[in-house]
Design brief:
With 215 residues, the chain is an all-alpha fold. It has one domain: Arp2/3 complex 21 kDa subunit ARPC3 (Orthogonal Bundle), CATH 1.10.1760.20. Helices cover 68% and strands 0% of the residues.
């Protein structure tokens, strides 16, 4: 009985991702918009910190998960929709904000990083069956998060502080405001999204995996 239940769960995961892989463009756009809405909602899970203009939010979790759920291109498109509609004025950036001023502000680089993160996570989880093993998946999540989200985020924060605010902030000062306070929380979020992804992603090929025939 237990074996049959496990097999049914595995088949449901496989069917769901194969279905997603074979969807029409219109339905993929709808799913990308839905994930953008989820990102807008978790952006409001916001904890401001008194010494930095960068708050703690749930956006990173959503961006990483978008790559898993929608794949490389559509995961990235979902985050691009989130950024684009926010710039157009839809108030779903953190703190119910919108407009190009928010993207050009101290946290705009992180939003660009969400697009890159979803693209990268989607690439690895869609193209490599072996990338769906928990240790490798966690490694991908951590590297993507701290490289592709934080590098553009920190660069823009540095430029904003020095050129817009005129505060002559050092690189260490920028790291203190834009990286160090978030490391522990982002590790927790990476573990959480990895556990979620590992639970839902099929452990066999469903699309165009390059290692589908390797053992």
């Amino acid at each position: 009985m237990a074996v049959n239940t496990v097999d049914r769960v595995r088949m449901m995961r496989y069917n769901a991702f194969q279905w997603r892989f074979e969807l029409s463009v219109a339905k993929k756009i709808a799913m990308a918009l839905g994930m953008a809405c989820v990102t807008g909602l978790v952006a409001q899970l916001r904890v401001p910190l008194p010494w930095t203009p960068v708050p703690i939010t749930g956006q990173t979790f959503a961006a990483l998960l978008a790559g898993v759920l929608l794949g490389q291109w559509w995961g990235g498109i979902s985050m691009a929709i989130y950024a684009g509609l926010g710039v157009a004025g839809l108030p779903w950036f953190n703190g119910w904000a919108g407009g190009i001023g928010h993207l050009a502000g101290p946290t705009g680089g992180y939003i660009i990083g969400f697009i890159l993160a979803a693209l990268a996570v989607g690439h690895f989880t869609d193209r490599y069956v072996k990338a769906r093993q928990f240790p490798r998946l966690l490694g991908i999540m951590l590297i993507v998060n701290f490289a592709l989200v934080y590098i553009p985020g920190l660069v823009q924060l540095y430029l904003w502080l020095n050129l817009v605010k005129g505060s002559a902030t050092s690189i260490m000062g920028v790291l203190t405001m834009g990286l160090f306070p978030f490391i522990a929380g982002d590790v927790v979020k990476a573990v959480a999204v990895t556990a979620t992804a590992w639970a839902i992603v099929p452990k066999r090929a469903y699309g165009k995996e390059v290692d589908r025939d390797r053992r």
